[in-house]
Write a structure and sequence with these properties.
The structure holds two protein chains of two kinds.
Chain A: E1 8-13, H1 17-26, E2 35-40, H2 48-56, E3 61-66, H3 77-95, E4 102-106, H4 112-129, H5 133-138
Parallel strand pairs in A: 1-2, 1-3, 3-4
Chain B: E1 2-6, H1 9-16, E2 21-27, H2 30-33, H3 39-55, E3 61-67, H4 73-76, H5 80-83, E4 88-91, H6 95-104, E5 110-112, E6 114-124, E7 127-132, H7 148-151, H8 178-188, H9 192-196
The chains are: A alpha/beta, B alpha/beta.
Bound molecules: iron/sulfur cluster.
Keywords (chain A): Iron, Iron-sulfur, Metal-binding, Oxidoreductase
Protein name (chain A): Coenzyme F420-reducing hydrogenase, delta subunit
Pfam family, one (chain A): FlpD
């Protein structure tokens, strides 16, 4: 377990988290390479199926990163994403995957430091939880 | 539309676990609109089932397919080329679709993946309310367009009962009293006189009380 390197998929909204990741880069703020970013036009674009497929294909953790409250470029895609994340969390529990492996986070485009912090915290959390039970069963 | 909700995954797993190859079928009609059994829900269930089975140490082969309508034989016929490749069928359609499949494929076990709930209308995104019980003798023309059969807990023909309070039904604060709504609506339409007419006891035979119902349209039936 010592050498376990989690695979984490981060669905990042183009207007906030994705730009924040860029910002983290230009500020030379390090964050774990475990986090694989998928850019989406809005966090509201992230479907339950995208999240599920990420777990099915071997992700140990997934997070959806959308804009701060009231700041969605498309009015309320971030709130819809948050509700969808809650829904998928309940489904994950039914499947037998710990719901902590999925998370909704919010940030603005200027929050490079927050992006790096979230990526680090999520990686640490998933490292503590160990490999996803699906990945473990498939191995 | 006919509304439905997915069954708990545990129950679905119990149905399918003795089988290796499952044909998972959605329906493009009502269950798609109420987000219970359309193409997307088929994808979600397939993915969830695959993972849950894998975790339990077994594996399952799932073929996903969504029919235009599961309650019509001409669409069910589309499945003929796929059926030999499946040990069992799991249907996300309403009970009508499930039974259509069971009738057509007599040697295949067919299981429901959803609980069919009621005939309802969409109130807003993600919220559906019961509106019709298919009683076979529509009263809406005399009750101001509000159904006391589907919407009054006691199915009163001459309401409200004594439990009506501030427009709410005694069964719960979030349930509107159908008879209160009927009265308000008749008043708004200037049709209060209707309310004074005593409605006779309902004949429940057309509602299914005389056995399963059937419609035969001579001009269409082959
Ligand atoms: S309170 Fe209204 S809706 Fe409820 S049972 Fe009585 S008449 Fe029917």
């Amino acid at each position: 377990m010592e050498s376990f390197e989690p695979v984490i998929v981060a669905f990042c909204c183009h207007y906030c988290a994705y730009t924040a990741a860029d910002m983290a880069g230009s500020q030379r703020l390090p964050y774990p390479s475990n986090v694989k970013i998928v850019r989406v036009p809005c966090s509201g674009k992230v479907d339950a199926l995208h999240i599920l497929k990420a777990f099915e294909k071997g992700a140990d953790g997934v997070y959806v990163a959308g804009c701060l409250e009231g700041d969605c470029h498309f009015k309320n895609g971030n709130d819809k994403a948050a509700r969808r994340v809650d829904y998928v969390k309940r489904y994950l529990e039914e499947i037998g995957i710990e719901s902590e492996r999925l998370m909704m986070v919010r940030m603005s485009a200027g929050m490079g430091a927050r992006f790096a912090q979230v990526a680090t915290e999520m990686t640490e959390k998933i490292r503590r939880l160990g490999p996803s039970p699906i990945k473990a069963a498939a191995a | 539309m006919i509304t439905a909700e997915r069954k708990p995954l545990e129950e679905i797993i119990d149905y399918v676990k003795p089988f290796k190859r499952i044909l998972l079928l959605g329906c493009n009609e009502c269950v798609t609109v109420c987000a219970a059994g359309g193409r997307k829900e088929v994808g979600l269930l397939a993915s969830g089932l695959q993972m849950a089975m894998l975790k339990a140490g077994s594996s399952i082969e799932i073929r996903e397919h969504t029919l235009e309508r599961q309650c019509d034989p001409e669409y069910v016929e589309e499945l003929v080329p796929m059926i030999d490749g499946a040990d069992a069928i799991l249907s996300m359609a309403c009970g009508c679709g499930v039974q259509q499949l069971a009738m057509r494929f007599k040697d295949k076990p067919v299981f429901p993946a959803v609980n069919t709930k009621f005939m309802g209308g969409s109130q807003r995104q993600g919220v559906w309310d019961e509106r019709c019980q298919g009683c076979g003798d529509c009263l809406l023309g005399i009750t101001g367009g509000i159904c006391p059969i589907a919407r009054c807990a006691k199915q009163l023909m001459n309401g409200p009962c004594g439990g009506s309070c501030d427009g709410k039904c005694e069964i719960g604060e979030d349930v509107e009293c159908a008879w209160h709504l009927i009265w308000e609506r008749l008043k708004a339409l200037g049709l209060q006189d209707r309310y004074l007419e005593i409605m006779p006891a309902k004949d429940w035979r057309p509602a299914g009380g005389a056995g399963p119902r059937k419609i035969i349209r001579e001009d269409l039936a082959e």
